[in-house]
From TrEMBL:
Keyword DNA repair part of the UniProt annotation: no
Lineage: Bacteria, Pseudomonadati, Pseudomonadota, Betaproteobacteria, Burkholderiales
Protein name: MinD/ParA family protein
Stretches with biased composition (Polar residues): 1-10
Annotated stretches, region: Disordered: 1-20
A Pfam family recorded for this sequence: ParA
Membrane spanning residue stretches: none
SUPFAM superfamilies named in the record: P-loop containing nucleoside triphosphate hydrolases (SSF52540)
InterPro entries: FlhG (IPR033875), MinD_FleN (IPR025501), P-loop_NTPase (IPR027417), ParA/MinD_ATPase (IPR050625), YlxH/NBP35 (IPR033756)
Gene3D superfamilies in alphabetical order: P-loop containing nucleotide triphosphate hydrolases
Keywords: ATP-binding, Nucleotide-binding
Length: 271
């Protein structure tokens, strides 16, 4: 199957705005890059569609966007064009493989590497305009705890932290969790562990992180911080092959262990 697309979806393909619909906003973030966050965002979106949701993925890594690469999309209009007033927001929304929609950011936009009042207002405006059209908006954020990342996460109803078993990933995940708890008042964060080598490893890691949080973070909070384990994705050759093909794993390798794991995460998020 080819995942190539070159044109934004016309307005008629967008879900109609509803006075009763108000999309749930889920920020997908990580403490460091290279943990598969964007890959998770794209495939999770496809899995949520299979659960009956109308989904929009907003590429919120404004400076180093790569959602278009993962999905093999070639946008003519990006969020940069919307922010600069060259095109309307609806013109930048594209239909993606997997049945969801995307708003792609232009890669390498240095001006978006720092947070300005204008960028703040534009992000809020984009989300508010799209919220009545979808059941869920996934914010594929940048990695780390920069002002841009933290502000983007602050716009979400819930936060999904993606980590791997590597010590550096866990250290950075803890740093992200601590900052979100202390600066945004987050008391419930969801944890997804990617690239596990054995069943149960993700749940063990969640337990280890929770212990560290309980010892070093919770004492300074008015209420305890809970890490909710939503699933683990195993190391799987299908992931590498899907990335190389620039296709959704759920479409080209639907029976793979990793694809089934993503579907299980979607089930937990919608139950």
């Amino acid at each position: 199957m080819s995942a190539v697309s070159s044109n934004p979806s016309p307005m008629s393909e967008l879900p109609a705005a509803s006075g009763t619909r108000r999309a749930r906003i889920t920020a997908v973030t990580s403490g460091k890059g290279g943990v598969g966050k964007t890959f998770v965002s794209a495939n999770l979106a496809a899995a949520l569609v299979r659960r009956g949701e109308k989904v929009l993925v907003l590429d919120a890594d404004l400076g180093l966007a790569n959602l278009d690469v993962v999905l093999n999309l070639f946008p003519k209009i990006t969020l940069h064009d919307v922010f600069t007033g060259k095109h309307k927001l609806e013109e930048a929304v594209m239909a993606a493989p997997g049945g969801f929609h995307v708003l792609l950011a232009g890669s390498g936009m240095v001006e978006y590497s720092r947070l300005t009042p204008e960028v703040r207002d534009q992000l809020v405006d984009v989300i508010q305009q799209m919220r009545p059209r979808f059941d869920r908006i996934l914010l594929d954020t940048g990695a780390g705890i920069s002002d841009v990342v933290l502000y983007t996460v602050s716009l979400a109803d819930e936060v999904l932290v993606v980590a791997t078993p590597e010590p550096t990933s866990l250290t950075d995940a803890y740093a992200t969790i601590k900052v979100l708890a202390t600066t945004q008042g987050r008391r419930d964060l969801k944890l997804l562990v990617n690239q596990v080598t054995q069943t149960g490893e993700g749940r063990t890691i969640r337990g280890q992180l929770q212990q560290v949080v309980d010892r070093y973070v919770t004492p300074s909070l008015e209420a305890p911080l809970k890490l909710e384990f939503v699933g683990e994705i195993p190391v799987d050759a299908a992931v590498r092959d899907a990335v190389r093909r620039r296709q959704l794993m759920l479409e080209c390798f639907p029976g793979s262990a990793a694809a089934q794991a993503v579907l299980a995460v979607a089930t937990r998020l919608t139950s």
